[in-house]
């Protein structure tokens, strides 16, 4: 997620780490063999030689060159499960990006089909010294919460799957496609929010005052809008739609509180102003509506987004 904004933290594969727990443990503990060595993540000349000598014995006397008939060209959406997660992630991102345009002058992100049209105003704390002083004072005051929030701040640097798993009882084995959908949300949200961050180019609180003293390294991009706020309100909007969570229910209240708390922790850490989170929430909700519209198997974009609709259908089945 997200956290901080960097490609490896938002990578779609992060969502599925737990799905390969056995393989990962094997790869980490057995350096000369296992999946990690076979995929090349761990260099193992011993395994390479062993596979070569084993192959020689297995193929002795074998004459059939082709054992499976041709299956025809292309497999379409029905064959999505054959591809690796990182390949599917690229398909999702492409479908979400298709038709999007960003107008830096108007601070507007929209798509040709009219499913997304969001404009963010400039941060008010940048308009006068008095408002900026007040905004910085709010950040400094929030630092008093650091002793209570430090564990949250540090563990939310990575994608906060654990927090959503706690609220929704997510389990990698039962909800593998839900995790994959969440990863698609976080990956796309980073691309979208960076357009605004680059355009506004807003200095961070620590750039304005030496009294802020952030407890995390200040990310190498602008403060406004807040990425954590964008990402978490985005994923909450999508999860509520996917799971059919009623408005006002206990689960909805908990999810909304979680998104706001994760965002506020970044203020406590000294990385954001409060107004950054307000803009991030606005953007996140807009992106959530867009994502759901593009992923709806019964929607007008179903033909344009076969990968996204495939993912949505499989994730929804996990909750049926």
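-> sequence recovered:
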């Amino acid at each position: 997620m997200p956290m901080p904004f960097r490609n490896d933290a938002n990578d779609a594969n992060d969502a599925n780490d737990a799905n390969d727990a056995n393989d990962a443990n094997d790869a980490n503990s057995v350096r000369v063999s296992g999946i990690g060595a076979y995929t090349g993540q761990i260099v193992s000349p011993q395994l390479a030689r062993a596979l070569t000598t084993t192959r020689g014995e297995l193929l002795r006397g074998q004459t059939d060159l082709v054992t499976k008939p041709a299956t025809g060209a292309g497999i379409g959406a029905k064959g999505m499960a054959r591809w690796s997660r990182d390949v599917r992630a690229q398909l999702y991102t492409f479908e979400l990006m298709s038709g999007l345009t960003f107008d830096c002058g108007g601070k507007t992100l929209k798509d040709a089909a009219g499913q997304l049209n969001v404009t963010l105003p400039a941060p008010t704390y940048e308009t006068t010294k008095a408002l900026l002083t007040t905004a910085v004072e709010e950040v400094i005051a929030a630092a008093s919460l650091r002793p209570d929030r430090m564990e949250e701040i540090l563990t939310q640097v990575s994608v906060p799957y654990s927090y959503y798993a706690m609220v929704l009882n997510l389990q990698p084995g039962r909800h593998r496609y839900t995790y994959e959908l969440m990863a698609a949300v976080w990956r796309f949200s980073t691309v979208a929010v960076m357009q605004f961050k680059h355009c506004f180019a807003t200095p961070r609180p620590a750039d304005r005052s030496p009294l802020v003293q952030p407890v995390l390294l200040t990310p190498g991009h602008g403060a406004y809008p807040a990425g954590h706020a964008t990402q978490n309100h985005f994923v909450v909007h999508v999860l509520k739609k996917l799971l059919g969570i009623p408005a006002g229910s206990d689960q909805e209240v908990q999810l909304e509180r979680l998104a706001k708390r994760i965002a506020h922790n970044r203020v406590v850490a000294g990385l954001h102003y409060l107004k950054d989170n307000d803009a991030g929430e606005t953007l996140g909700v807009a992106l959530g509506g867009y994502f759901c519209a593009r992923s709806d198997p019964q929607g007008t974009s179903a033909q344009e987004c076969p990968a996204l609709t495939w993912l949505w259908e499989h994730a929804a089945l996990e909750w049926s």
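Confidence is low (pLDDT under 50) at residues 1-15, 17-29.
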